[in-house]
Amino acid sequence: MALLDMLRSPLAFLESRLPTIPHLPVLRAEQEWWKTDGVRISDAIDRAGTPWLRMFDPSGRRTDEILYPPEYQTMLRQGYRSGVVWRALEENSLLPTYLLMYLVSFYDPGVCCPYTVSLGTAVSLAKYGGVESQARFLPPLLRKDNSVWQGATWMTEIGGGSDLGASVRTIARPSSDSWLLTGDKYFASNATAELAVVAARPEGAPPGVRGLALFLVPRYRDDGSLNRFIRRLKDKIGTRSVPTGEIELRDSEAYLLGRADSGIYLILEVLNLSRVANSVASVALAQRALADALAYAECRTAFGKRIIDHALLRHQFEVRLESLRSAFALAWESVRLLDEVGMERPPYSERYHVFRLVAHLAKYWTAEFAVSSAKWAMEVHGGLGVLGEYEAERWLREAMILAIWEGTSHRQILDGLEVMERKQAHKTLFAQLAGIARTEELQELESDVQRLLNLRPDHKEAEAEAVFRRLAILSGDHLSRKYLQ
Amino acid sequence: MALLDMLRSPLAFLESRLPTIPHLPVLRAEQEWWKTDGVRISDAIDRAGTPWLRMFDPSGRRTDEILYPPEYQTMLRQGYRSGVVWRALEENSLLPTYLLMYLVSFYDPGVCCPYTVSLGTAVSLAKYGGVESQARFLPPLLRKDNSVWQGATWMTEIGGGSDLGASVRTIARPSSDSWLLTGDKYFASNATAELAVVAARPEGAPPGVRGLALFLVPRYRDDGSLNRFIRRLKDKIGTRSVPTGEIELRDSEAYLLGRADSGIYLILEVLNLSRVANSVASVALAQRALADALAYAECRTAFGKRIIDHALLRHQFEVRLESLRSAFALAWESVRLLDEVGMERPPYSERYHVFRLVAHLAKYWTAEFAVSSAKWAMEVHGGLGVLGEYEAERWLREAMILAIWEGTSHRQILDGLEVMERKQAHKTLFAQLAGIARTEELQELESDVQRLLNLRPDHKEAEAEAVFRRLAILSGDHLSRKYLQ
Amino acid sequence: MALLDMLRSPLAFLESRLPTIPHLPVLRAEQEWWKTDGVRISDAIDRAGTPWLRMFDPSGRRTDEILYPPEYQTMLRQGYRSGVVWRALEENSLLPTYLLMYLVSFYDPGVCCPYTVSLGTAVSLAKYGGVESQARFLPPLLRKDNSVWQGATWMTEIGGGSDLGASVRTIARPSSDSWLLTGDKYFASNATAELAVVAARPEGAPPGVRGLALFLVPRYRDDGSLNRFIRRLKDKIGTRSVPTGEIELRDSEAYLLGRADSGIYLILEVLNLSRVANSVASVALAQRALADALAYAECRTAFGKRIIDHALLRHQFEVRLESLRSAFALAWESVRLLDEVGMERPPYSERYHVFRLVAHLAKYWTAEFAVSSAKWAMEVHGGLGVLGEYEAERWLREAMILAIWEGTSHRQILDGLEVMERKQAHKTLFAQLAGIARTEELQELESDVQRLLNLRPDHKEAEAEAVFRRLAILSGDHLSRKYLQ
Amino acid sequence: MALLDMLRSPLAFLESRLPTIPHLPVLRAEQEWWKTDGVRISDAIDRAGTPWLRMFDPSGRRTDEILYPPEYQTMLRQGYRSGVVWRALEENSLLPTYLLMYLVSFYDPGVCCPYTVSLGTAVSLAKYGGVESQARFLPPLLRKDNSVWQGATWMTEIGGGSDLGASVRTIARPSSDSWLLTGDKYFASNATAELAVVAARPEGAPPGVRGLALFLVPRYRDDGSLNRFIRRLKDKIGTRSVPTGEIELRDSEAYLLGRADSGIYLILEVLNLSRVANSVASVALAQRALADALAYAECRTAFGKRIIDHALLRHQFEVRLESLRSAFALAWESVRLLDEVGMERPPYSERYHVFRLVAHLAKYWTAEFAVSSAKWAMEVHGGLGVLGEYEAERWLREAMILAIWEGTSHRQILDGLEVMERKQAHKTLFAQLAGIARTEELQELESDVQRLLNLRPDHKEAEAEAVFRRLAILSGDHLSRKYLQ
Lengths: 485, 485, 485, 485
What we know:
The structure is a homotetramer. Chain A is of the alpha+beta class. Chain A contains 17 helices and eleven strands. Chain A has a five-stranded mixed β-barrel. In chain A, strands 1-2 form a two-stranded antiparallel sheet. In chain A, strands 10-11 form a two-stranded antiparallel sheet. Chain A is globular, with a radius of gyration of 22 Å. Chains in contact: A-B, A-C, A-D, B-C, B-D, C-D. Chains A and C meet through strand 1 of A and loops of C.
């Protein structure tokens, strides 16, 4: 298979990296759909910009309808039908889900977000929901046709998304057989989801993260009226295939997930699913950027030869291709580990902490790589790279969102530092990497990590990034070798 | 002066870096205008997106009018009046021009483009124009009021902007007392300029760069009708304060600059002016991104303190601030050198070749730095960074254009390589840097450059980027020290 | 003066219709400003579409800032400075106000709306405000510089604007020294006004219009925070120079105007001011449409002559010109009468009821005329008439809003019917018209009106429009003759 | 069937007016498709505004691709497959075509335009094309699947669309076995059509309409390159489902239709097809506006009852409903007559001239009625009527285009006058109407027409509109009675 053909097919790349791939026919059909229909729908959705929100129907009833073109639904439902959510629960494995996400994200990383938050909702419900909640809400979330419900995971408020302990001010008051939530969510992806998982603070709970609980909030009240309101949709620079809004909860009917005093664990578990999805999507996006750049460089000539045949560009491309494989290995390691530990509950195993470390490394590094690859692909396109009518600039807009949501690099580095410090997760990781190939570089890095952890707090934070980056890259390189075996 | 105050003022930064600054009152007034009026106008122009082109007036006459809001003219004319073009010729120095450009680009790097191409037009005309052309066109280009003419420099055609020898297909046919040009220009900045400098190929000229000549093309024919047509405006992701169009030349009246067989030198001299301007603008944009990030980080809190007081962010910021100073030093060195050699004609001096090398290093590195700083500033803003309604995302859009127009990094690296190889320009540069501070790092780099130049062509190109980047950074660091003295 | 010159100048038209015009130099300066600056600003504002609403500043504080281009403020403040509001109170006459409104509406009927609602706010306050409210709020509303406050008049809720008795659900609860309002306003023009006049229902008040009261609601609370919120701006097809939003009142501090049980009278008085303004604006807009059509028809040729010289078009134009004069006479009669009775309070005089009838006739007929003239002007422009890049289509978009807000034709007809039925206002009107010219047509119409009023209710309503239209037209024709004398 | 149900179904309305309807199952399926899929697609296309034109593919090849969302093609192809074009030629009857057009225009009058111009192309080709042209181009135009070619009819140039004799400046030069056309078309609907019918002036032909010829111009040259260029798409206020552009012909390969000296007849015959289509679309649009207004008026309450139950609104609605029936009768009469005379060639029969008169009356009056109905429906919607997020305002935008393209009211009146004067077409029409019902009104109108025709030219034109309008209305009323029989 020619390199360009491989790069242009997310499935071919997956096949080149993974020894076995479950549900190949499903993935083939999915990719075929994207090539024939999805690509052009996705382009049109991106070009159309932020859709309109029609708050009231003509009779004056509040309805909060988002005016996407109808083909948006076609595109969106495609992945649900293929099993991006229902397979995870039915087959008790996250692998089919993240394989589908890789494939979809190659074509549209934004539409991966609804899938991710629906997954987070379904998994939270399956793991922590009460019997009644499960009976009522799980079946519609797992439907295999277009009537499937969507989920959403709304944590962030105006105060910011990192320090939830301080910024979540949504209050939950117990009601007869449920809870009533009041507050505003500021970045609420998949704003029309039928069921959302929402962080709130039960009345009287202590301040900080210890006082957080997680709730299910359906779109409609039992009486059929809206149970929450979209204040507006946000004009994001990318991922226009997921509607992100500000949500108003006003005595919204809600159902507790798990225990009211341990919501923070549930929140972090939801975030784990998202970060892994973000890593997978970032690598897929980087593959897309490289594929487009290569296609362009193969058809454009300058100074008498195709620009891909100029040594500088060729070299840059080859280095990036190698990095793509490493980035994929790192992301997929986070998938594999999550698949192992995803059903754990606190207190977590040592393996879980390794997963956390790898997930932070992957979220951080794959997003960086996606951004730099999208930037590079724009430059390869020259002047065309900055024109809205061509696609090159889109991937940078998409990549920048992947680098920011689910926690910026700062968050990943600091949280990664913490799990190394408190849980010594790096030791297990280094042991594992050494099993792949024992190198001098690895030993040196291990010393550097140890040295870093011994610094006093401020210095430790200040110096963390360089070490963290090297750890991500080296882990990716080593893991990449493992996948090749 | 508090750091934030300094960063928020391009003039304060200039004052902190340069021992003397000519025309301080002019610059102060310029900055004051931007702070009170310009900032909000520039925001509005960017938000408005690509303006409409009204090709015909209601009576059916072709007019090619661009429908900018009226305040666009206010913003645009401000810089001309302050002297961004006329001072260069009247005072025989480029320093006031580039100082003004730094200042303007801090607020709007796009509007710097009309100034740059007007400068290129005026300088070409002054240097190479015939007596009649000068008499007719120089005075309006140098007016000090709002009636000033604008210039433009149009080289690129659909085949691309790098390999002009192959891609310029516009034909020039001699007419009675002038020339007639026919062809299409694909990226034509400042599309309504009263006078453009245009690359074309005289009928019968040899292929390749040797067959190129440079012409003046006024907007209107002698009979008052349009002398060239705007086919359309391009939807760029940034720099919306300069209208970039596709231009149709159809027997357009034109006047030769210099000799018909040496146009390539004139073209490259025009490009020199632009690349230096691009470097200056890139550094200013990076300053802006850092200023905005710092302002945000000082007012936002997480985990009980301002986010700027978190050690990781603080460290990243400080490293960037140091790089800003280096990048400025590199850019300003290219200004200083251009100011010395700008009136040379072929054959050029050794000093001219050093200028060329520094200009390539500066164009390359300052744009990279602008992009990475804008990306970083977006991340500091978290979720707000990806929303159209705030400014953070704008700087990345602007920076990506700076990285691409006037030649992408590939162009700079390869041309830089050539001037080192053919003219040994690096030797003079190293000598100069050693004069500032003789370091081991410098010596090591000098060997690496030499080793690179000895490689066989393909390897040389492939390996060039890493060496070129280090050369840019180290040069900047050294020069930064020099400016501090 | 050539006809086209007269039509292109709202002031020239006013001078041709009115024997004396106060403050001519002020009006001349105003018109001059519009010709040189305002026209192009207004075009740019219309082209830009609905502006963005930035709800939060970067630090997360709710600010509800509307992102108009800065020149919008220049345009907006121009009229306030000229005295569109302050003169009404200082000079104790509405004539200067409505003259200015005519002039402004010729160029931009949308910007007339902020002036109208600011006038409504100032007049209500001056007439019904408590001593403290007047001392605090009147001076800023009457400032003569750019720091002037704006007013707003918010009545309509989601249930509709006609039947306020049923649809106003905003509740007012008494607080220590003021009131607290909670509810949602659905069409809230001039959404950022510093002071709004708001219809609400005091707790415990009876249902229907008898339970309505009118309140002053400042933009900011005494503690400096926002006192009301803009939920969003509405994407209107026209009048983009006034921001119309949905407003949320949440325990918003408010001050009662007049008595709590007679709000409906105050509301109707505010509406009177608006309807008269709407009539004046409609005529001005019709003049503009005719002026543009004539200008086009004078420069375009078909079949060997200017299209204005084709008899069909010429005839249509002349008929419209005559109607313009009649429509103006009707509108100005409503101004003149309002100027007489505007300070009355209930119980109102017979003269007041004549004013009401004339105001309904004028609001109805001038808007119809504006719409049909704008439609006609589009058709005169042929294909250019439907292109966004030319202005012809704008006037129809503007006119359609004038026909709808302040009550559609249905409202005017039915309310006009009521004031004829209950107050016999038509008798006085007919007497007055007879004083101008006693015609058979007039007598016949008088009989028809009487016959209409004698029908049983359903038939009366059903048949009302034809009679009402004839009454409007005939009144206009007669009054036009009077103005010519 | 409830009135609202009937009004909401174009097919139900057709069934209520016409005794027999061919291909009912086809029409039912078409309507069903529109109700389930088409409505929402059409809304999305309208909301998206003018699509982008991508002139060049990334490799720099000129391609002139219009970036519609993919579902646009779904919507567009639906009608072709149902037979809006192929049935006309295969079944030798225009009735199925215009029935389909009525149905489609109820949902989207814009998409009716591609069908109309494709019909015009196919009919011209079938009637006047050479053997080779027919063999080559007819089959693809008549395909029954999605690969069907589209046609287009391009006459208008920058000088205007009425006086083609003066404004068509496109030159045709004979080539070896075809012609080469050079010129610019200013309003070119269906800009990407595979085959266009184009008016041009053979070199050396006399001035005026006598020098016009009609040509076929394929999209691609024989060598596969573009045969004509889209300079840009026009931002129309409506009918966004047909891309209207400016077209550049540059030595474009072309094939003559009919004789080179009788193009004007062919042009007028094409126009006949369009005007009849425009009439049918206008009535369908009026029905849509009434249906939407009724639906709203049935669900909205004011003053204690549904607003449709208020006598004034109810009365207006009923009058409009009656007019809808008359307007339909007039439009359908033009269809019926065209179906009879459509294959005639000059010299034409008397029946043909009656058709022309009826077609002018219908184009004029149905468009007037569509505009006034759309305006009325907006007013019924009150404030919602002026908001972009609801549909009411769309119908006015669409209607205004129907009133302007294919000739404004002026054109219809003057051309109608001519056919009465020169061909006495009104006499046959009056005779026919008298056959339906002999009324005093009719006799009076006949005298008025005769009186009008006897006036001297200028007076005749000036007075024509009132008589023409009465003739249109009365004809519609009478014909409506006939259809009811």
